[in-house]
């Protein structure tokens, strides 16, 4: 098993900074360096690694759009009428079994906690996706920010030149069900949505525009904006201006999205699939200081031919997730990075006449790996057929409280919308203590 896991992810003779510059920067303080985190591989230098990592946590969400089946992934029920054709296999943690479609993750369970007792009570694609991106449903008079926007606010740095929230969703199926939303936090924390390419569109300065012209246009916009602001007070206006002020920094971060900057060996490890390449970009982004990256993989909505669908998608998830966790661990990032697998709901234990599984929000699974999590564990239990939660039932609110707590964020912290206090999670919601390290 050890030889299977110890992969050399570096292999590059060139690094972004030399040792002398590195040590000087570390001595001067990591905060100054953090303003330009577009330089990668900094975590290979222990002194600066400690200084940078102490400044914040990071999250990568693997979003399994359409609703992955818990029975073909994290909570198999072989030998039952609802179990399907796939076996359960032992993992590296005694007593924990997962689907045979996930042999690589079976060897790496020590960093992962499986939550098998989600009952989120919403089996609709759209509202279920919004619930599982926000932890609660919007009020009639208030649009809540999603997880990415909250973490951009809580974990981002005002001086950072990298994005705070990046979302990959390249499929057309289900894209409109769970778009990123900053809600009442405003446009400053809105996501950079990537739907057609690994590299953001319009991030480059137009070829016919000189750098001087670009800079002067920015200065003119800022001048006009300041004039407009005089005598006006508006949270939306301030957020809009902050977003514009970051444009030049975002343009400088273009190379972070370019996987050709990685060695071929690393690219081969993640694989040539779009999901694998997006996960590699996600690692590059969080290594450079981006607080939150969502990588959407669609489409798991297996009303027909459930087993064929999962026989195709689950091994890809297994490979990409295992590679990502190995990469993060070997780069010294996993202790400060939380990797989440989540969808809008799971799939029914019952198998329909089309040999599919339908929407099911009553007893399904998610996983948390890395930062702040008790790895090698399972929380909650479903009954023998997977039709109901037998122990440890939790909902979206408890899951989100646990995520925030793992990242060192008080789940009951209040934001204020005008004079109205708005806690991060539903009032009196507690994190799942057994999941936290």
Structure description:
The chain has helices at residues 2-5, 19-28, 30-34, 46-53, 103-106, 125-134, 147-155, 211-229, 235-245, 247-252, 264-270, 274-287, 306-330, 396-406, and strands at residues 58-65, 88-90, 97-99, 112-118, 165-168, 192-194, 292-298, 337-342, 346-347, 359-360, 364-370, 377-379, 381-382, 389-391, 414-417, 420-423. With 437 residues, it is of the alpha/beta class. The protein has one domain (36-204, 247-435): Alkaline Phosphatase, subunit A. α12 packs parallel to α13 (306-330). Residues 1-39 and 48-54 have low confidence and may be disordered.
Terminal CA distance: 25 Å
Which term fits the overall shape? globular
Q: Average pLDDT, to the nearest integer?
A: 86
- The percent range for helix content is 25-40%
In CATH, the homologous superfamily goes by the name Alkaline Phosphatase, subunit A
